[in-house]
Amino acid sequence: GEIDIVAKYKDSLVFIEVRTKRSLEFGSPEESITPAKKERIKATAFYYQQTHNNLPLLWRIDVVVIELNQNGKPSRIELIENAISED
Length: 87
Description:
It comes from marine sediment metagenome. The chain is an alpha+beta fold. Helix content is 20%, strand content 43%. It is built from 1 helix and 4 strands. The protein has a 4-stranded mixed sheet. The model has no long low-confidence stretch (mean pLDDT 92).
């Protein structure tokens, strides 16, 4: 698996999935995360946390959504905290 960004925030490890879309024709960026993709992200986050020493025990998975306008410039950038739950 692959995680776009791994960060530490206060007492938590934060795994961040970044989703960018030019068109909303097939849904928003956050809607493009399939159940299978969510499971892969969770498995990768768990593996990362288990295989690296001295990391916080608490962790969460956030999503950054970016929508681009017709000129390719961001029209929306949003951080969704705890977007993918551990269970």
